[in-house]
Amino acid sequence: MTSYALQLNNISKVYQDGDNENTVLDKVSLKVKPGEFVAIVGPSGSGKSTMLSIAGALLSSTEGEVIIGDTSLDNNKKNWIRVRKEKIGFIFQSHQLIPYLNIGDQLNLIAKISKNKDKKEFEAYADELLNDLGLLDSKTKYPNKLSGGEKQRVAIARAFMNKPDVILADEPTASLDGPRGRQVVEMIRKVVKKQNRAAIMVTHDERILDLVDVIYRIENGKIHDVKSNM
Question: pLDDT tens digit string along 96-120?
Answer without folding.
Answer: 889 999 999 989 888 777 655 677 8
